[in-house]
Write a structure and sequence with these properties.
The complex is a heterodimer of chains A (364) and B (480).
Chain A lengths: L8 H12 L3 H13 L5 H24 L5 H43 L6 H16 L3 H26 L16 H6 L1 H7 L5 H4 L9 H30 L1 H6 L3 H7 L12 H31 L5 H14 L4 H6 L1 H25 L7
Helix pairs in contact in A: 1-6, 1-10, 1-13, 2-8, 3-8, 3-10, 3-16, 4-5, 4-13, 4-14, 4-16, 5-13, 5-14, 6-13, 12-13, 13-14
Chain B lengths: L18 H4 L6 H10 L4 E7 L2 E7 L6 H13 L19 E2 L3 H9 L2 E6 L2 E6 L28 H11 L5 E8 L5 E8 L5 H12 L9 H8 L11 E3 L2 H9 L3 E5 L5 E4 L3 H4 L4 H4 L2 H30 L7 H10 L7 H21 L5 H18 L5 H14 L5 H39 L1 E2 L2 E2 L28
Antiparallel strand pairs in B: 1-2, 2-4, 3-5, 4-5, 6-7, 7-9, 8-10, 9-10, 11-12
The chains are: A mainly alpha (364), B alpha+beta (480).
Chain lengths: 364, 480
C-alpha cells in the first residue's frame, strides 16, 4: 500500500503547509477586516502564527514520544480504550466537518466564478471523487501528490503577488501601527482558524519515526512561518488593492483582488484563472488531507475495510450539501471554530499532559 | 563462468574443466538418429574413421556449409590413431559441448550447432550462421549529433554494438530463455556496482515470470513484464540506439535484449527520462536546456491546447481579451457545429493522417500528408465546416506532439488529449483542472520497477533536478 517509510523534514513542511493554506486564504481577510477594521489587521496573523507555534510544540512532543504512531493509535494508548475512542471520534468529527466546509466553500467559489449554471452537487461530487481517487491507494500517493503540486502552487501565488503590485494603492494601507493591541490579539481567534492543518502531522505520525521533538518543532515552525508569510503578503495586497472597507463587504476578497489585475496585450487579459488554479490546488490538498485523516480514523475505530473510504466520502458529501446557502454555511463557522479548538488544541494537549503525568513513552 | 553459448544449461555456472571426460551423456542415440533422420530439414551423416563410427547432425539452413566442411569434416577425416584417443579428440575442449539430454540437444541444433555422436557421447560444435541486416541508423529515433548506429535483429550483434560503446569489465550479461515453444534468447544487461540490487532482483523475477509460448519481439516482452496494464504510460522504454542503452546502464538501469528484435528495453524509466534525448548531452548546456524546456512546453501544449481553447470559447469568453474574442467569434461565424465537435473532428482527422503516413510506403507517405494537411484543412475552412483558428490550434498541437522523443509516450499523450477535450467540453476550465488532477494522481501512483514515475519531482530528489526541465552543465573534469 504505502511505500513512503519515513518522511523528511521537507516533506513534513510540504504536507502541513499544503494542508494549512486552503480556504483560509480566501475567507480570512473578510472576517479579519470585520473584526479588526483597520489596515493593521495583518499583525493579527503574526499573533495567530505565534500562538500556533506554541501549540505545535505539543504536536512535536507527542509525535516524538510515540514514534511511528498516528493520533488514532496514540489516544487509546494514553487515555485507555474508551476515552481513546471518544477522543478519536471527536477528531474524526472535526475532520468530517472541516472537509465538508472546505468542499462546500470550494464548490460555491467554482460555481460563482467558473460554472454558474452547473448544479452544486455535480461540482462537489466531482471534486470529492478526485480526492477519493488520490487517497484510495494510501499515504504514499498523498505525499507524492502534495510534493508535486507544492512548487506549482507557490509559483502561482508568487506570480500573482508580483502581477498585483501595480494595482496597489498605498493610501489604502495607511495608517500603519495605529491600532490598539487588544483587537489585534482577539483577532487571533479568527486567524487561528487559518492555521489549522498543522495537526495533520499527528495523522501522518505513522511515517515519522526517527525525529527528535526539537527537530519536529523547527520543521513545524518553518511551515507555520511560510504559511503566515503567504497570508500576510496576500492580506496586505488585498488591503492595498481593495481597501479595508471593501474587504469587509466582499465575500471572497482575494479572488476579487486577483480579478482586478488586468494586463493589456496578453492572450489572457485577466489573471484570476491563474489564482483560481493555484487556489484550487490548495483547496484540493486541504480537502484530501482531512478526508484522508477521517478515513484513517474511521479505519482505526471501526476496523480497516476498503469500503470505509466510500462511507466517509458519502458522509462528507451529504454534510456538504446540507446547508441551504452560503450564508447558512457561514452561520456554522462559530461551531466549526469551537470544534477546531477542541480537536486541534484540547485533545492533543490533554493527551500530552496525561502522557507526561504517567511518564509513559512508546518505543517501537 | 561458462558463457560460450546462449542456450545450454551451463551458462552462469562454474566452468567445468575437462567436461568431456567427466560427464557421460545418458541419451538414447538410436532414438535420436531415428527421429532426426526422418525430418527433412535436418542432415544426418554417418562417417567411418579408422573403425570409429561418428554421426554428424546439423540443420543446413542455419549453418555454414564451408564451416562444417573445413573445421569438422576435414579434420575428422585426417585423424590418425593415437593411443587412448578417439576421433573427437581432434577438437579442443573449448569447441565441444557435452549434451546431457534431448532438450539441450534440440536447443543447440536450433542455435545452428552441429551435433557429433561418437559411441555413447553427444557433443555440439558451433557452426551457426544466421542472416541479419547490416547496421543502419534507426528510423524512429533521429539525432543530429553523436553515434548513428542502431541495433539490429541479432542479439549477438547487439551485444557487440553495446560493447563498442561500453568498454568495461563491469558489464554483466545474464542469459535467459523465454517462450515455452520459441526458446527466444533474452539477455539482461547491467553494470555491476552501478545497479541497485533490488532493481536487479525485480528484473530477474519479472523475466523469469514471463509465461508465453512464442516471443518474437521486444514489445511483447515489454508488455509481459510491466505491471500497470491499464495505464497509458509505458513502464519500460524501448530504444534502438546503443548509446541510449549505454547511458541508461551507466545511470544504474538495466537493459533487456531480445533475440530477433532491434528494440532493447530499458528499465526503470521516469516521465522525465522519456523527455531526454542524446542530443541534449552533445550540445552546449544552455541551448540544449532551452530545447529541453521547449520540448516540455510542447508536450504540455500537445495535450492541453485544443481543450484550453474550446473551454475558453465555449465557457469563459470573459477571460479572452475583447478584441480577440470578437475576431474569434467572427471566424466562427457560419460554422454549424459546436466547437467541441469541431475540435474533435479535427483531432480525429489528424490522427488518421498520422497513422496513414506511417503505414504507407515511403514514396507515397509525404504526398498523403500534404493532401491531408493542405487540401483537407483548406477545403474544410472554405466549406465553412471548421473555423480557421481551430485548424491552427489543432494542427499546432499535432506538431507539438511530434517533438516528444519517445513514441510510446507520444501515443499516451495523444490519447490523453482526447480525454482532456471531453473534460473541457463537459465542465470547462474546472473540468480541465479536474482532469489534470486525475492525470497527476495517476502519474503519482504508477511506478516503473518500483521507481516512482514522477521522480525526481515527486518525491523530491534534488541531485537529479539539474537534469530535468533544463540540463545543467557537466562538472569540469568529470562527466555528469
Amino acid at each position: 500500500m504505502s511505500d513512503a517509510k519515513q518522511l523528511t523534514a521537507l516533506q513534513i513542511i510540504v504536507l502541513t503547509t499544503s494542508t494549512m493554506i486552503g480556504i483560509g486564504i480566501i475567507l480570512m481577510p473578510r472576517d479579519l477586516a470585520r473584526h479588526v477594521d483597520t489596515p493593521d489587521l495583518w499583525i493579527s496573523i503574526i499573533f495567530g502564527a505565534i500562538f500556533m507555534c506554541i501549540v505545535s510544540i505539543i504536536y512535536a512532543f507527542l509525535s516524538s514520544r510515540y514514534p511511528g504512531l498516528s493520533i488514532f493509535d496514540i489516544s487509546p494508548i494514553i487515555v485507555g480504550k474508551w476515552f481513546g475512542f471518544i477522543f478519536n471520534f471527536c477528531f474524526v468529527i472535526y475532520c468530517l466537518i472541516i472537509s465538508a466546509y472546505i468542499l462546500r466553500v470550494t464548490a460555491v467559489i467554482i460555481k460563482n466564478y467558473l460554472l454558474d449554471t452547473t448544479p452544486l452537487y455535480v461540482i462537489a461530487g466531482t471534486f470529492l471523487m478526485v480526492s477519493l481517487y488520490l487517497i484510495a491507494n494510501g499515504a504514499g500517493d498523498v505525499v507524492r501528490f502534495f510534493q508535486l503540486y507544492f512548487p506549482i502552487m507557490m509559483f502561482m501565488f508568487i506570480v500573482l503577488a508580483l502581477l498585483s503590485t501595480k494595482d496597489i494603492n498605498i493610501q489604502n494601507t495607511r495608517p500603519m501601527f495605529e491600532t490598539d493591541i487588544l483587537p489585534l490579539i482577539t483577532g487571533v481567534k479568527i486567524t487561528l482558524f487559518s492555521f489549522v492543518g498543522i495537526e495533520f502531522l499527528l495523522v501522518f505520525g505513522t511515517l515519522i519515526k526517527k525525529k527528535s521533538a526539537k527537530n519536529l518543532m523547527y520543521t513545524l515552525w518553518t511551515s507555520l512561518g511560510l504559511t503566515s508569510m503567504l497570508y500576510i503578503l496576500f492580506i496586505i495586497i488585498s488591503i492595498g488593492v481593495l481597501g479595508v472597507e471593501e474587504l469587509k463587504e466582499i465575500a471572497f476578497p482575494t479572488i476579487e483582488m486577483a480579478k482586478s489585475i488586468e494586463f493589456q496585450g496578453f492572450f489572457f487579459e485577466r489573471f484570476e484563472l491563474i489564482f483560481l488554479f493555484g487556489w484550487l490546488i490548495t483547496a484540493f490538498t486541504s480537502l484530501t488531507a482531512y478526508y484522508f485523516s477521517m478515513t484513517t480514523g474511521m479505519k482505526k475505530m471501526f476496523g480497516g475495510s476498503r469500503f470505509m473510504i466510500w462511507i466517509s466520502g458519502t458522509i462528507i458529501y451529504v454534510l456538504t450539501l446540507y446547508p441551504e446557502g452560503l450564508t447558512d454555511v457561514f452561520h456554522y463557522s462559530q461551531l466549526i471554530q469551537i470544534i477546531s479548538a477542541i480537536a486541534v488544541i484540547a485533545i492533543p494537549g490533554i493527551l500530552l499532559l496525561v502522557s507526561l503525568l504517567r511518564r509513559q513513552t512508546y518505543v517501537s | 563462468m561458462c558463457k560460450t553459448c546462449l542456450s545450454c544449461s551451463y551458462y552462469n555456472k562454474p566452468f567445468i574443466q575437462g567436461v568431456i571426460n567427466m560427464e557421460k551423456s545418458r541419451l538414447d542415440i538410436n532414438e535420436i538418429l531415428r527421429e532426426k533422420s526422418k525430418q527433412g530439414h535436418i542432415v544426418t551423416k554417418e562417417i567411418e574413421i579408422s573403425g570409429h563410427s561418428i554421426y554428424v547432425i546439423y540443420m543446413p539452413s542455419i549453418t555454414k556449409n564451408a564451416e562444417i566442411n573445413n573445421s569438422i569434416l576435414s579434420p575428422l577425416m585426417e585423424w590418425k590413431y593415437r593411443k587412448g584417443q578417439t576421433p573427437v579428440h581432434t577438437f579442443s575442449t573449448e569447441q565441444l559441448q557435452v549434451m546431457k539430454n534431448k532438450d539441450e540437444l534440440d536447443a543447440h541444433l536450433l542455435d545452428g550447432y552441429t551435433i557429433l555422436i561418437e559411441n555413447e557421447d553427444v557433443y555440439a560444435l558451433d557452426t551457426a550462421y544466421f542472416s541479419h541486416r547490416s547496421i543502419s541508423e534507426p528510423v524512429s529515433e533521429m539525432t543530429l549529433r553523436g553515434s548513428r548506429d542502431g541495433f539490429i535483429e541479432s542479439i549477438q550483434e547487439n551485444i557487440n554494438l553495446l560493447r563498442v560503446h561500453l568498454r568495461t569489465t563491469d558489464l554483466q550479461l545474464e542469459y535467459y530463455t523465454v517462450g515455452t515453444k520459441s526458446f527466444t534468447n533474452v539477455i539482461l544487461a547491467y553494470i555491476q556496482g552501478e545497479v541497485n540490487e533490488e532493481l536487479l532482483k525485480e528484473a530477474r523475477k519479472r523475466i523469469e515470470e514471463i509465461n508465453a509460448e512464442y516471443v518474437s519481439d521486444g514489445g511483447l516482452i515489454e508488455q509481459s513484464i510491466e505491471k500497470n496494464t491499464y495505464s497509458l504510460f509505458p513502464e519500460v522504454q524501448g530504444t534502438e540506439r546503443p548509446i541510449k542503452v549505454t547511458n541508461a546502464l551507466v545511470e544504474g538501469k538495466v537493459a533487456i535484449f531480445v533475440d530477433g528484435s532491434p528494440t532493447v528495453l530499458i528499465a526503470p524509466i521516469t516521465l522525465n527520462s522519456l523527455f531526454q534525448t542524446s542530443d541534449d548531452y552533445s550540445f552546449k548546456w544552455i541551448p540544449a536546456s532551452l530545447v529541453r524546456l521547449m520540448r516540455y512546453i510542447a508536450a504540455f501544449l500537445a495535450v492541453m491546447l485544443p481543450s484550453i481553447y474550446i473551454s475558453l470559447i465555449s465557457y469563459h469568453h470573459g477571460l479572452i481579451p475583447t478584441d480577440l474574442a470578437i475576431s474569434i467569434s467572427k471566424t466562427r461565424e457560419g460554422v454549424p457545429i459546436p466547437s467541441f465537435m469541431e475540435a474533435f473532428l479535427m483531432q480525429v482527422t489528424i490522427e488518421v493522417l498520422r497513422e496513414a503516413g506511417i503505414r504507407l510506403p515511403k514514396p507515397i507517405g509525404p504526398a498523403v500528408s500534404i493532401v491531408g494537411a493542405i487540401v483537407l484543412g483548406e477545403a474544410a475552412v472554405t466549406a465553412g465546416i471548421v473555423s480557421p483558428l481551430m485548424v491552427i490550434v489543432v494542427s499546432f498541437a499535432a506538431i507539438c506532439s511530434f517533438t516528444i522523443p519517445d513514441y510510446s509516450l507520444s501515443l499516451a499523450l495523444r490519447a490523453i488529449s482526447f480525454i482532456m477535450l471531453f473534460a473541457a467540453a463537459i465542465l470547462g476550465i474546472y473540468g480541465l483542472i479536474i482532469a489534470i488532477f486525475l492525470l497527476s494522481i495517476h502519474l503519482v501512483r504508477i511506478k516503473s520497477f518500483s521507481v516512482p514515475y514522477l521522480e525526481p519531482f515527486a518525491p523530491y530528489y534534488y541531485k537529479r533536478w539539474k537534469d530535468t526541465f533544463i540540463r545543467f552543465r557537466f562538472k569540469k573534469g568529470g562527466s555528469q
